[in-house]
Design a protein that fits this description.
Largest interface: B-C, 72 and 88 residues
Largest sheet of chain B: none
Number of domains of chain C: 2
Shape of chain B: elongated
CATH architecture of the largest domain in chain C: Up-down Bundle
Number of helices of chain B: 3
Radius of gyration of chain C: 21 Å
Number of strands of chain C: 0
Shape of chain C: globular
Distance between the termini of chain C: 68 Å
Oligomer: heterotrimer
Distance between the termini of chain B: 58 Å
Order of helices and strands of chain B: HHH
CATH topology of the largest domain in chain C: Four Helix Bundle (Hemerythrin (Met), subunit A)
Chains: A mainly alpha (493), B mainly alpha (101), C mainly alpha (177)
CATH class of chain B: Mainly Alpha
Order of helices and strands of chain C: HHHHHH
Largest sheet of chain C: none
Number of strands of chain B: 0
CATH class of the largest domain in chain C: Mainly Alpha
Structural class of chain C: mainly alpha
CATH architecture of chain B: Orthogonal Bundle
Number of domains of chain B: 1
């Protein structure tokens, strides 16, 4: 039998391959490196991420598809939507690495496994954006989650860390099982798990009870991942117990990946069901905004406060998703913009928390912020700026993001949802600005432990937030292009 | 009347609910995990049932991937359970409450 | 009642009863055995549905590997093998309500299905395909025209899970102060 090389263009999936290869390479190198040198893993991870990012950007506007099974629909698509999300995840990784460096050294965690698991998780996130088949979405969900379960528990034998890993694991496995059941129901109703074919099947045969139930199960499964209310119970405990760089990574990366899955399912597979899911999404969004913002006020621990804050931000993104039912391009592109801006702002805020945490579990209270402004003026200014951005006060990236999201929702005539969004944004000002107040108006013993890497990363993130605040149109055009390529089915293209 | 596909779907739904009940009700982390495995099995059942009724082998292939995921979760989950037990001497979920703030 | 129906009821009854036992038994080890019984029942269902290869895989992986791992974990956390005061956790009330509601939802869906014509009778899967299934599966898993991407992703998943599990479960080197 002759061997005919298969017709696949590996360059298309090269970003993911690079990250996976870097992760595996790291484990191999670990075998041979003497125990004393520990820093090499950082450079391997960083170089891998940069290479992947470069390759990723090079693929822009290519609309490639590859790995096409018999039903004629590619399993993996590299449309602009996927490229944008990939860039988001890779940037998350690139920023988390300098943030975590000195923290890891302080707590004795500086092992190559940390970076390799980080890389594996990022590869799962990237696959999530590129997946064109529900089973690949499920596998990507697991690939991104399982390293996170471990990373939460990496500070064993500290019991808080182990507990957070256990809780995250049990809830994560539970939600995965629900998600798979949803896939099975959709498969039964449409004979396929490929997303464009699901779209065709629904277009041809209409909706039936089984597809809608499958959709409900899929949304519940994804809802756990993005920590929407009422699936948010795990978030505060897990965020508090995990090592803070891992918390930072989770709060941005896992959440955006969860939204990638949700967007793919809702927008590309089942847009005709939008009459059904827009109400559900709007209700979820309302609950999430209210509970996330209100409970955050009562938190005395900054990690728990940021956990509830990230729950609330999922609520804002859900507003954009709800708007996408009526107006796909505005809704999805504002969601993408929000996620990108949120990445910089949230990681920046966590950067300060990491710097403040002298040792695992110490220095996490709001009171520890007192008097920081006098000792570390520049970093406190950055933190104040991040808090402004999280509240949504101009000129910050957070404000631009909320502006676009609310704009899309107004276009979709979801007025009451916008009202709730605005009111809760104002409420959130209380707990965000409280941090600023503590930093500047009090005297205290707050001490930051920063290395050059962390300072550089925080600086980059602050500048990015400023740029997004002052010149948002550039990014917004990018997200609009990304959305266009993803929804070309809906645009009739 | 043969056993039509509805019966298999009903069985799958019942098994899923039993598993979900177990996750929500039981105290021991290992039992919760066993119930999650039950839920995954029920989803597998659904896949195979639909594969049969639709005459399509795609469903059976998907079952393999779900089994792989279940195996990976078992490895990780049990490692975490054993680690917690070493530290706390208990895997009672009610006692995993150091983080309630 | 035909033979097929009888067999179905027997096997599914076994699966369901075993499932209920997993949820209600106090002794962890007995619950694990019940779980193995449940997996056996599911394997029987696979055979009835014509998925012989899957049934064998189910036996090997679920009963032969996953259940054994769980029993290992039970043995390693030995003190929990004793019966507890109550097996039900503090969230039992809310959990029960939620599960009952979900069950009602599922029953609703299924009864709607009863009238759905797609499912009147399963088509006969040609024996040629049934005999070829192992070959077909094998080539599908590695063919770029089929399932190679999920296959590769699944292997990366196993690698990551292995690394993580070993890292977490490694015995401590330093002594506990």
């Amino acid at each position: 039998m002759e061997f005919t090389p298969p017709e696949i263009n590996l360059l298309i999936v090269a970003p993911v391959l690079i990250i996976m290869a870097a992760g595996s390479l790291g484990m191999v190198i670990d075998l041979f490196m003497p125990d004393g040198k520990k820093g090499w893993a950082v450079w391997l991870a960083a170089i891998g991420l940069l290479l992947a990012l470069a390759q990723n950007i090079a693929l822009w506007n290519g609309n490639y598809e590859t790995f096409i099974p018999q039903n004629g629909v590619a399993m993996v698509v590299m449309d602009n939507f996927a490229i944008f999300l990939n860039a988001t995840f890779l940037l998350t990784g690139l920023l988390v690495i300098p943030l975590s460096r000195s923290y890891l050294q302080r707590t004795g965690l500086e092992k190559p496994e940390y970076y390799m698991l980080l890389l594996f998780s990022i590869s799962g996130m990237m696959l999530m954006g590129m997946a064109n088949d529900l089973i690949l979405v499920f596998l990507a969900l697991e690939v991104l989650s399982i390293p996170l379960y471990i990373m939460c528990g990496m500070l064993w034998p500290r019991p808080e860390s182990e507990e957070s890993a256990m809780k995250y694991f049990l809830l994560g496995a539970f939600s995965s099982a629900i998600f798979v059941f949803g896939i099975a129901l959709v498969y039964g109703a449409t004979t396929t798990t490929a997303i464009p074919l699901i779209f065709d099947a629904v277009a041809a045969n209409g909706l039936n009870a089984m597809i809608v139930t499958g959709l409900a199960f899929l949304m519940v499964g994804a809802g756990f991942k993005v920590a929407a209310v009422p699936f948010h119970m795990w978030t505060p405990d897990v965020y508090e117990g995990a090592p803070t760089p891992v918390t930072a990574f989770m709060s941005v990366g896992a959440k955006i990946a969860g939204f990638a899955a949700l967007l793919r399912v809702l927008m590309l597979a089942l847009p005709q069901a939008s009459g059904e899911w827009v109400t559900a999404v709007a209700v979820l969004s309302t609950l999430t905004l209210i509970i996330g913002n209100v409970v955050a006020i009562r938190q005395g621990n900054i990690k728990r406060m940021l956990a509830y804050s990230s729950i609330a931000h999922a609520g804002y993104i859900l507003i954009a998703v709800a708007a996408a039912a009526d107006n796909p391009s505005a809704g999805v592109s504002s969601a993408l913009f929000y996620m990108f801006a949120y990445l910089f702002t949230n990681l920046g805020a966590f950067g300060m928390v990491i710097a403040l945490e002298r040792n695992y579990g110490e220095g996490n209270l709001l009171d520890d912020f007192k008097g920081l402004a006098k000792r570390h003026p520049w970093l406190s200014l950055a933190m104040a700026y991040f808090m402004l951005s999280l509240t949504g006060i101009p000129p910050t990236g957070g404000f631009s993001a909320k502006f676009y999201v609310f704009g899309a929702a107004i276009e979709a005539e979801l007025y009451w949802l916008v009202l709730i969004g605005v009111i809760t944004s104002v409420i959130s000002g209380y707990y965000y600005l409280r941090v600023v107040y503590l930093m500047y108006m009090f005297d205290g013993e707050g001490q930051l432990i920063t290395g050059r890497a962390l300072q550089f990363a925080v600086f980059v993130m602050a500048i990015s937030t400023l740029v997004l605040g002052l010149f948002p149109e550039g990014l917004f055009n990018l997200t609009a292009e990304a959305t266009l390529s993803a929804t070309r089915l809906l645009a009739g293209g | 009347m043969t056993a039509t596909i509805d019966w298999y779907v009903a069985l799958s739904a019942i098994l899923f609910t039993i598993g979900a009940l177990g996750v929500l009700l039981r105290r021991s982390a290992i039992i919760v995990f066993m119930c999650i495995e039950l839920m995954l099995n029920s989803a597998n059942l659904l896949f195979v049932a639909f594969a049969r009724s639709l005459g399509d082998l795609h469903g059976q292939v998907l079952v393999f991937f779900v089994i792989v995921v279940a195996a990976a979760e078992v490895a990780v989950g049990l490692a975490l359970i054993v680690t917690i037990f070493r530290t706390k001497r208990s895997i009672n979920i009610d006692e995993i409450n150091l983080l309630k703030g | 009642m035909t033979g097929e129906q009888f067999v179905f009821l027997a096997v599914s009854g076994l699966t369901i009863v075993a499932g209920i036992l997993v949820v209600t038994l106090r002794n962890l080890f007995h619950a694990a055995l019940a779980m193995m019984l449940s997996f056996l029942g599911v394997a029987g269902i696979y055979i009835m549905l014509g998925a012989g290869f899957l049934a064998a895989a189910q036996l090997l992986i679920y009963i032969g590997a996953i259940s054994i791992l769980i029993i290992f974990a039970i043995m390693l956390t030995r003190r929990m093998m004793q019966a507890q005061d109550t097996p039900f956790n503090s969230q039992a009330g809310a959990g029960l309500v939620t599960a009952v509601l979900s069950f009602i939802l599922l029953v609703f869906v299924i009864t709607r299905l009863w009238r759905n014509e797609i499912f009147d009778s399963p088509p006969e899967v040609p024996t040629a395909i049934m005999n070829q299934i192992v070959v077909q599966l094998g080539s599908d898993f590695v063919s770029p025209g089929a399932y190679v991407i999920p296959f590769i992703v699944a292997s990366m998943l196993l690698l990551a899970a292995l690394i993580g599990a070993v890292y977490v479960a490694w015995p401590q080197v330093e002594d506990e102060a």
